[in-house]
Design brief:
Elements lengths: L7 H4 L3 E9 L4 H9 L4 E3 L6 E6 L4 E2 L1 H7 L12 E2 L3 E8 L2 E7 L15 H9 L5 E8 L5 E11 L11 E8 L11 E3 L3 E6 L3 H13 L3 H4 L12 H16 L3 H4 L1 E3 L29 E3 H10 L2
Antiparallel strand pairs: 1-7, 1-12, 2-3, 3-6, 4-5, 6-7, 8-9, 8-10, 10-11, 11-12, 13-14
Length: 304
C-alpha cells in the first residue's frame, strides 16, 4: 500500500478566482443598507457569517448590434441579440472585519468611499518578495501624468521594472507569494486582492488577508513604497482641511506651507502656469515659481 497526500483539488475542491474587498469599519452600516435595499438577501451557513446579495440578470442589447444593423442591406436579418449576466456580492464577517467577494459585474455596485483603498496592495506587499514580481501597475503623479503597466514573462526582481518609487504611485502589484501558502501560487493586489483558491478555504484566506493588511512588515523590504498616496476619502479630506485651517489660525502654515504652480494633470488642456505674481500683474511682472504664505499675507496687509 502506498501512502501519500491527495492533490488539493481532490481534498479541498477545485480552485476558483476570488476577488475580495475590505469594507471600512465606519462604512459597514452604510454599505449594507445600500446594497441590501430591495434585493434578495440569502444568509450563509456556518462556519461563515454573512449574506449573499443577489443581482438578477437584466437583458440588454449590446451597443454594437445597432451599429452592425446600420450597415446591413436588410437589418431585419440580424435577430435580437441580448445578453444576460447575473451577479452577486458575498458579504463575510470575520471578527471585526467585513469582507466582500464579488461575482461577475456586481463589483460595480461598490462605491470607493466604502472600501479600504489599499487593502489588496498591502496584502500583496506583505506576501510577495521583491524578486517574485510578475506585474507592476503604477501612476506617475509628478510631472506629466500617466499610467504605466509592466508585466514580466516570469517572476522577476523589482529592479527589472521601470518604476521610480520616489515619483510613482504603485496601484497594483502581482506576483508569487513566499510566506502565504493560503494565497496559492499567485496573488494580485490593488484596492481588491485576487487569488485562486478552493472556496472551502475562503474563511482562512480572509483571516490571513486581514493579518497581512494590518502588518507593517512590508516596510522593511519595500521601504520605497507607500510613502505617498492620493487622498480621495471625503472624511480624511475634511480632517486635512480642518488641520490646514487650524495651522493658518495659529501661524504654523506660514512657517512651512509652500504653494507651487499647478502642473498638467491627466492630459487636460490648461493655460501654462509659469509662476505666481504678487499684487497686480504689471506689463513686466516679477514671476516666482512658488508662493510663500507669509509673503502673501504681507502683501495683503500692505494693501489694507
Amino acid at each position: 500500500m502506498v501512502v501519500g497526500s491527495l492533490p488539493e483539488e481532490e481534498t479541498d475542491g477545485p480552485k476558483v478566482g476570488l476577488t475580495i474587498y475590505l469594507v471600512k469599519p465606519e462604512m459597514v452600516a452604510t454599505f449594507e443598507h445600500v446594497v441590501k435595499k430591495g434585493r434578495d438577501v440569502l444568509p450563509l451557513k456556518a462556519p461563515l457569517n454573512g449574506e449573499f446579495i443577489v443581482f438578477p440578470p437584466g437583458a440588454r442589447t449590446a451597443a454594437w448590434v445597432d451599429l452592425v444593423r446600420s450597415v446591413l442591406q436588410d437589418s431585419s436579418q440580424l435577430a435580437e441579440l441580448k445578453s444576460q449576466s447575473p451577479g452577486g456580492l458575498l458579504i463575510v464577517r470575520r471578527e471585526k472585519d467585513t469582507f466582500v467577494v464579488s461575482f461577475t459585474h456586481a463589483w460595480q455596485k461598490l462605491e470607493d468611499q466604502w472600501l479600504e483603498s489599499d487593502f489588496g496592495l498591502r496584502v500583496a506587499l506583505n506576501a510577495i518578495p521583491p524578486d517574485k514580481i510578475v506585474e507592476i501597475r503604477a501612476e506617475q503623479v509628478f510631472g506629466n501624468w500617466h499610467i504605466a503597466s509592466e508585466r514580466a514573462p516570469r517572476a522577476s526582481f523589482v529592479d527589472q521594472f521601470g518604476v521610480e518609487f520616489d515619483r510613482d504611485l504603485v496601484a497594483t502589484l502581482d506576483g508569487v507569494p513566499a510566506n502565504s501558502p493560503l494565497f496559492g501560487k499567485h496573488v494580485r493586489g490593488g484596492t481588491n486582492m485576487r487569488v485562486e483558491r478552493s472556496f472551502s478555504k475562503l474563511g482562512d484566506v480572509l483571516d490571513k488577508a486581514a493579518t497581512q493588511f494590518r502588518s507593517n512588515a512590508y516596510k522593511k523590504r519595500w521601504p520605497e513604497i507607500g510613502n505617498i498616496k492620493p487622498v480621495g476619502d471625503a472624511g480624511i479630506i475634511e480632517k486635512l482641511d480642518a488641520k490646514l485651517d487650524a495651522e493658518f489660525e495659529f501661524g504654523e502654515a506660514q512657517k512651512k506651507l509652500v504653494l507651487f504652480t499647478p502642473a498638467h494633470r491627466h492630459g487636460e488642456e490648461l493655460p501654462l502656469a509659469d509662476g505666481y505674481v504678487y499684487g497686480r500683474i504689471s506689463k513686466n511682472p516679477e514671476i516666482r515659481p512658488y508662493l510663500l504664505v507669509g509673503s502673501w499675507n504681507d502683501l495683503l496687509r500692505e494693501q489694507g
